[in-house]
Amino acid sequence: MKAHIYRNQNPSRLFLILGISLFVFVFLQTPPESNNGTAVLLFGAPFPKAIWVFPLLLIFLSLLYSLTQKYLSSPFLTWFHTFASLSTALTLVVLVFFGLRSPGQLVSDPEWIGNTIKVLSLVLFVAQLVFLVNILKGVYASWQTR
């Protein structure tokens, strides 16, 4: 019974809680240092500036869900987008923070990190398309009822 009640809740709370906690985590972390003295790049930007994209993405998705809640048509698509976005964003954060800091194989083989980030970014992009389909389906359904 509780799972059914929770399933119908607004997922913006999940995005907001994880976005704020990730915001605090990023704020308290020190950026990784490069071996040769150059700045560590993430998505082509300096690491200390680019790492803020993850908590800001989650907070933005929380705001987006709050604003578009009445147009979302399918609970399945809503929760699919929620879990795909959260798991992908958190996996990217773990990979970035601990992959760039570990002295093991991850740093010695940067191609593996790059390929994994590309696949996870593609999954995140597909999750955003699912959200867009859900919104368009809801808007179309609301126009049909008029």
Question: Would you kindly provide a brief summary of this structure?
Answer:
This protein has 146 residues and is mostly helical. It is built from seven helices and two strands.
Keywords:
single chain, 146 residues, mainly alpha, two-stranded antiparallel ribbon, 7 helices, elongated
Please provide the ordered H/E string of secondary-structure elements: HHEEHHHHH
SS strand fraction: under 5%
| Global geometry | elongated
Order the strands across the largest sheet as they lie in space: 1-2
Structure description:
With 146 residues, the protein is an all-alpha fold. It is built from 7 helices and 2 strands. Strands 1-2 form a two-stranded antiparallel sheet. It is elongated, with a radius of gyration of 18 Å.
